[in-house]
Amino acid sequence: MGRRAPEHPARAAAPARPTGPPPPAGADALPGPRDRDHRTDAPLPATLRRLDDGSLALVVTPADARLLDGAGRSGTTVTVRIADGGNEDAARAALARGHRILADGPLGDAYAAFTLAGALAAEPGLALTAHTAAADTAWAAGDRAACESAIGAALATARLVSDSRRSQLGDYLRGLAALLREAPEDAIGHLRRVAACGDDAPDALHRAAAAALILGDADTACRIGLRALAVAHDRDRPDLTATALEYLAYAEMRAGRHARARAHARDGLAAARRAGHANTAAHHHAVLAMSASVEGDTADVETQAGAALATARRCGLGQTGALAEWALARSDLARGAPDAAAARLAGLVRQGHFAVRPLLLPCFAEAAALSGREPDSRTAVEELRRWAASGLDPAAGAQLARVEALTAAPGTAPEAVDARFRRAISLHPNGAGDFERARSQLHYGKWLRRRRRPLLARAVLRDALHGFERCGAVLWADQARQELRATGGPSGAEPGALAALTPQQLRIARLVATGATNREVARSLSLSVRTVDHHLRNVFAALGVRSRVELARLVAETP
Questions:
Q1: Phi, psi of 142 (to 5 degrees)
Q2: Which helix (H) or strand (E) holds 127?
Q3: How far, in Å, CA of 116 to CA of 130, rounded?
Q4: CA distance 150 to 13
Q5: Which residues, listed in sequence order, are joined to residue 46 by a DSSP beta bridge?
Q6: What is the pLDDT of residues 427-467, one digit of tens each?
Q7: Percent of the chain residues topping a pLDDT of 90
């Protein structure tokens, strides 16, 4: 297996990462099994070695190789057994080494360590743990063949395990196997059972959160992530805290709750640094880059994405790298540079991780359409249509309708394009935040203006502007204002009014204007009450208002 990044559609469901003794000297050439049932008196000398291509080979003497060859021609069954003493300890050492590498090293090396542990382990439970870790890592890396091999080994071993892990692990592995063979209808039942986990063991909770995210059930993933976070806090484990917050941050981002995602990612980044887990820290940087790309803070996008990509490229973190590149592409779109966005995403869509690609398709289709790359946009729409039909992403239907409208062929009846835009706006999930709906409204408003329907265009563009302002999407809000000015209507707040606020201040101001208390604002944005108090004082100073009533009036007067 190469050293491509292991990452899941929504983050690889890696087991908890225990510490353990260092691997023994010469771990790459550990003593291999000895066959005590062989007809010769001497034991079979063998060494397990890692080859240049990363595979493992059992190396024997030429004489013993001839014996094995003769046994194969005669149909004799050859049994390879683990020698008494040492190999079980070596298996545990290799497993611990794999988890240590997962923290801050190349994930291709972690996969090799897990595979070695599975080969050495005689105890079925230990072998199952190792094979499952190898499957997770191969899945995350996007190596189908390696993942299928590890899943097969894990399922074979699971039959020998009688404890409670067997049921959830079996469903989890069968769900992944179904997705690998592109049969989502076979995966859904297995993954739903995994997501319904009642176990509070960290690795079980992480698998459940991953299953929920694969199913597109971000709310369930958030609930499971909170359970995992509580367990991590109870155990006072910063490594488990960082991992739980990784799932929480990603789930909130998938749900469109970008402020919460940002808050969880900041906390997770701090926990990952305390634990010394550079790879987990990189994923939190990527989520922070995604949040900044919504807000339009281009400098922060570049800073956070740069930090994520530095580790992703060094250690092979596929999803982390994809998220960081996606954030940079969304930043390109926000500043009106679809050519740059399409060029950045093209490689990820063509050769990226098979489970991350579908999530990038709406953004790529939009960028390709806006930059005149019609063949790319048509191909992306066709792939997105298949992805939406899988039922694994609740947001895909709305995004598909939007890009179908954007990529409508010349000569398409205006009524058909209008219907697709309206369908997109109606399909955006109510609980998925304002950003995606506002993007659909912005494109619809632009189309209406070009069709010389200024009154309806203004109404739609005002809705888009309000949506962007509610989620602090500054550059996107600027696009909506420019379109409003082009229709001849008022373009909303000018510099010196609400536009003078930071994205966080704008979110707080709009919530306060609805009558929310500081405590309610803090709960909504995952902030402390003290932080809200501080921001609100700055809002009052920036806007020159002296009361919440004056603030509400100013917000109400902004189109």
A1: 80, 20
A2: helix 124-141
A3: 8
A4: 15
A5: 60
A6: 987 656 688 999 999 999 999 998 889 889 999 999 999 88
A7: 44
pLDDT band at 53 (very low <50, low <70, confident <90, very high): low
What distance lies between CA 474 and its chain's CA centroid? 24
For residue 49, list its beta bridge partners.
Answer: 57
Most confident of 246-250, 470-474, 493-497: 246-250
Q: For 397-451, give the DSSP string.
A: HHHHHHHHHHTPPTT--HHHHHHHHHHHHHHS-TTS-SHHHHHHHHHHHHHHHHT
The 3-state DSSP class for residue 86 equals coil
Phi, psi of 18 (to 5 degrees): -75, 155
Chain-centroid distance of CA 214 in Å reads 9
Residue type, 31: P
Q: pLDDT by residue (tens digit) across 167-210?
A: 788 899 999 999 988 888 899 999 999 999 878 899 999 999 99
- Here the contacts of 439-443 (C-beta below 8 Å, separation 24 or greater) are 439/402, 439/464, 439/476, 440/398, 440/401, 440/402, 441/467, 442/468, 442/476, 442/479, 442/480, 442/483, 443/402, 443/405, 443/406
Question: Are 125 and 8 spatial neighbours (Cβ–Cβ below 8 Å)?
Answer: no
Indicate the helix (H) or strand (E) that contains 58.
Answer: strand 56-60
Q: What architecture is domain 497-557? A: Orthogonal Bundle (1.10)
Are the C-beta atoms of residues 302 and 318 closer than 8 Å to each other? no
**Pairing outcome for strands 56-60 and 46-50:** antiparallel
- The pLDDT score that the predictor gives to residue 505 is 84
Please give the single-letter amino acid code of residue 429.
P
Report the Cα 307 to chain-centroid distance in Å.
17
User: Could you state, in order of their start, the residue ranges of all structural domains in the chain?
Assistant: 408-486, 497-557
* Helical packing angle, 278-295 and 318-334, nearest 10°: 20
What is the rounded CA–CA span in Å between residue 331 and residue 338?
10
Q: Which tokens hold the place of 434?
A: 């304002």
pTM of the model: 0.74
Q: Which of 254-263, 417-426, 469-478, 484-493 has the lowest mean pLDDT?
A: 484-493
Mean pLDDT, rounded, of the chain = 81
Handedness of CA 3, 242, 470, 492 (dihedral sign): negative
* Beta bridge pairs of residue 50: 56
∠ CA 244-163-133, nearest 5°, is 45
pLDDT of 75 strictly over 50 = no
